[in-house]
Amino acid sequence: MPAVAECHSVVEEHYAEILFTRLQAGEVHRLRLRRRARQGASGSAGEEWRELNLRPVLIRGLRHWQFVYAYPQRDQTENLLVEEALLRLQEHLRLPLRSLLWEEASERCVVQFSRKGRPQLRREAHVAPLPPLSLAHDRSPAAPLPAERPDPFLRAIGVMTAEGRIRARQRAKFQQINEFLQQLAHAGAAEIQPSAAGRPLSLIDCGCGSALLSFAALHYLSVKCGRPSQLVGIDQDAGLIEKARQRSEQLQQAGVMREAAAFHAGAIRDFRPEEAPDILLALHACDTATDEAIALGIREGVSLLLVAPCCHQHLQAQLPAVAPFAPLQRHGILQQRLGDLLTDALRALALEIMGYRCSVVQFVGGEHTDRNVMLRARRREREDARVLRRAVDEYGQLTRYWGVKPQIETLLGESFAERLAVAGQRR
Ligand SMILES: C[S@@+](CC[C@H](N)C(=O)[O-])C[C@H]1O[C@@H](n2cnc3c(N)ncnc32)[C@H](O)[C@@H]1O
Known about the structure:
The chain is 34% helix and 25% strand. The strands form two sheets. It has an eight-stranded antiparallel β-sheet with strand order 1-8-7-6-2-3-4-5, with helices on one face. Strands 11-10-9-12-13-15-14 form a seven-stranded mixed β-sheet, sandwiched between helices. Helix 6 links the parallel strand 10 (229-235) and strand 11 (262-265). The chain has helices at residues 15-24, 82-93, 152-156, 171-186, 212-224, 238-253, 289-300, 326-329, 332-353, 385-402, 407-425; strands at residues 4-11, 28-35, 51-59, 62-70, 75-81, 97-104, 107-113, 119-126, 201-206, 229-235, 262-265, 279-283, 304-308, 356-362, 373-379. Helix 7 crosses helix 11 (407-425), helix 9 (332-353) packs across helix 11 (407-425) and helix 10 crosses helix 11. It is built from eleven helices and 15 strands. It folds into three domains: 4-126, no CATH class; 148-283, Vaccinia Virus protein VP39 (Rossmann fold, 3-Layer(aba) Sandwich); 315-427, no CATH class. The chain has 427 residues and is α+β, with helices and mostly antiparallel strands. Mean pLDDT is 86; it is low at 1-11. The site of S-adenosylmethionine has 18 residues, from strand 10 and helix 7.
């Protein structure tokens, strides 16, 4: 057990929401539920499990959660795909529990339930962070495209030599590709079902540039996960679109991709896909191009959005001077970061309001870029009225406090206003 450096305790009604956000973010190393025995149940009566331990595992390249149920006389193990696992866990959280514990790299969270089911959440920081999460289960390599295995995609883009060695000068790119693919795997991209049965998984990359990471995603999903996938890229820079088309042809000729990707030169805002995409990527699309991408994803009902924002100017320009923030606002860099934080927090809330579960995580290591925040959002199967109300309240408070109107609100227009109104009426 790791030592505990500091500990604080709060009554926390939102523990389940916190837990599910952390699970979605791929931050949970393990989870334990202890069940309260039914009154009057004794011996083998009821044959109920007493304790349940969960850990993430990778099985044939797909993320699963391993459930180990401890019954009085035996253990029972089940491996469930992420979506299924989250639904199962939601059911278990409705049972009378004694405690719930989950472990993250930097802290341990413990929820104790009173006899009446009142939760108390305690967060304990580890003195030293836990070692990186290992998903090893069946000898699957941790890196989606491992260095020690010849890979036609890595070869075709010049990262790997013909003999299967990573070129010294390409190590950073190799690492960046793998970190991005880890994000994709953590987000459960390979388990998403296409919106139309029998169709390949459809990816759209907004502000794709030369689309290197999207090609990596396509390769990973199609070849490594066995999920046939197609890609549409949009960028307003016709020169970059031409480069992406050439790269697509080159990858096809090298036998890496079966079908060419489709590319469109133009603004994200004006783009109307022929078919609804399943996964939306927007990696460092400048300023409000990120909002255009999020709005497109929400409008099309995509299952998963992976959005790494870039520069943030739109909200920045609206920020008034606010007295207690003077020490931040007097320094350009801090004022800029304040604008970045507010913009991304409001984007995450807008996604929640529009029916997504959103986590904000580190995109790739800071050595690649200082723009390394990622919004990872999965569409909810079912509406959660409590989350909607909370998100609407928080969004209202933050925008009123700062007197700002984020671009995402403008782009979502009436559909967003309706959601705010619905939550207001249900109060
Ligand atoms: C920093 S680059 C990132 C390119 C690529 N996603 C990557 O990660 O390498 C941002 C790209 O977004 C494109 N872009 C910016 N605003 C756009 C908009 N409103 N519509 C379409 N593309 C846009 C730019 O042309 C540029 O290629």
